[in-house]
Amino acid sequence: MEFQQAKQLLKIEELRYALNSLAREKGLTSPEILETSKKLDHLLNEYYRLCESAGRFGGMFQDRS
User: Within 10 Å of residue 33's Cβ, how many Cβ atoms?
Assistant: First the structure.
């Protein structure tokens, strides 16, 4: 695994942990949950793009329309 991908995975795991902690503290409908979830989605999309550019998914996530 490339360094950039590993670094991205670490950020993803940290944000997932933060999201779970927020959910326990504030409930699933709090504005903080929504904002953190959007950040996590963004990081996941970046990670998939990194993996695709490295050939890890073999075009699995390409738009086929």
Answer: 16
Q: Are 15 and 5 in contact (CB under 8 A)?
A: no
Please answer whether residues 15 and 36 qualify as being in contact, where contact means their C-beta atoms are separated by less than 8 angstroms: yes
Q: Does residue 8 contact residue 47 with C-beta atoms inside 8 Å?
A: yes
How many Cβ atoms sit within 10 Å of the Cβ of residue 7? 13
For residue 56, the SS3 value is coil
What is the tens place of the pLDDT at every residue in 18-50? 999 999 999 999 999 999 999 999 999 999 998
pTM for the predicted model, two decimal places:
0.76
